[in-house]
Design goal:
Elements (H helix, E strand, L loop, with lengths): L5 H13 L5 H4 L4 H11 L10 H8 L2 H12 L4 E4 L1 H8 L7 E4 L3 H11 L2 E6 L4 E6 L2 E7 L1 E4 L7 E4 L3 H6 L9 E3 L4 E2 L4 H6 L9 H7 L3 H12 L7 H10 L8 H13 L3 H10 L2 H4 L7 H10 L6 H7 L4 H11 L3 H13 L6 H9 L4 H10 L3 H7 L11 H5 L7 H16 L6 H14 L10
Parallel strand pairs: 2-5
Antiparallel strand pairs: 1-2, 1-8, 3-4, 4-5, 6-7, 8-9
Helix pairs in contact: 10-12, 11-13, 11-14, 13-17, 17-19, 18-19, 19-21, 21-22, 24-25
Length: 453
Amino acid sequence: CLMCSSSSVIHHFRKLLSSPRVPARLLSTVSINHRLCLSSRLFSVKAMELDATIITRSILEMPELIQLGKIFKQRGKELRLVGGVVRDILLGVTPKDLDLATTALPHEVQQYMKEEGIRCIETGLQHGTLTAVINKIHFEITTLRVDEAHDGRWAQVRFTDDWSLDAMRRDLTVNAMSIDLDGLLHDYYNGQEDLKARRIMFVGDPTQRIQEDYLRILRYFRFHGRLARIHDHDRATIEAIRANADGLRRISGERIWQEFHKILLCGPAVEVVQVMHDTGVLDGIGLGAVDDGRIRELTTVKMYVQHQNTLLASLLHTEQDVEELNKHWHLSHAEKSHCLYIVQHRAADATQESAENALVDKVPALHVMELLRYQGKPHIADTLQHWPVPVFPIGGKDLSSKGVTPGPRMGSVLAALRAAWVASRFALSAAELLETHLPAALAAPVAKKAHVT
């Protein structure tokens, strides 16, 4: 190929792809560097138009990866890039993580790293996963395995040296590909074809894949929202999801939220959530109270909001819904308080003045800005993004110097002075408040619950 003109390569490659007799595995023998650089000219799928050659070479030419490759090769073992890194390379996206698989057993990997003086972390040794750290770069290395004795979330594993068996255990075809360190793509289940077609498919039988790990239902919807055509769902897949949605009740709330928040952030989140509602998935993850009205609310809010907590709040009816969901999902304090604030205040019209007041009252800025965006007022949020929040200039010591003793009277006076300061839009100085407004505040009756010590 290197000696052929690009036009000649394209001509013959088109003929190869168009041949009905060419098995999918034959395509996996073509150098990925050539396949990717041709992709924009051969295929019209938008996701494949990015030229990933530079990304591929930059990864394969990493000195640290080359070093690892030599270590395994010298010992007769194979090492490949697998899973999400391969998917991202084919999409022309720089991968966030560098996941590798190997034919070496876990104890062998540990021994190799020890012999070479490379730091090795036992990331998930029971499942054959170790992390090698070279120059502060983390490479997660997992021994090829077959998952056995599933309980719907975890599995007992048996190690293997068969790459196709390892690919078979993975959830989706687009996540089941591998690239060896010579740059060859190995695709056992037509993952590249599905990726080009923007199609999300389980590896093999969808029911079997789901029942091995029910969390795969949410992973299906996450990747569908990210990569697939909006309404293009395989019928057998949807029926398998519908039949097994109740299995999601076995999954921890933390893992559910970890997946669901990514679904909320994807572009077609509304359409994805609607399918999840129609297949019973929302009920299976603790969102059974979501109805068409809440989904319409999400539709409106999604136009202005890209924060998962705010989007989640749009699906919840009441504060009680937030509390009940929190019992199952174990939201962080920040996540729970965020949702509660949106649910409590979304009915009242938020203005710049009310937002400023909230900020002065030390309501978290994120809550205030997200409420504005929730109500379709991103321009106000943008205006206040860098607003210097004024600080009330009067404290207990100032009043003590004027003869006001700590207690209900001081609390009442401070509240009156603060109200006057807010009414001035924070313009009154400490001197002006003490000289002009203190006498009236002292003459007023003590406000209930006002107490400062």
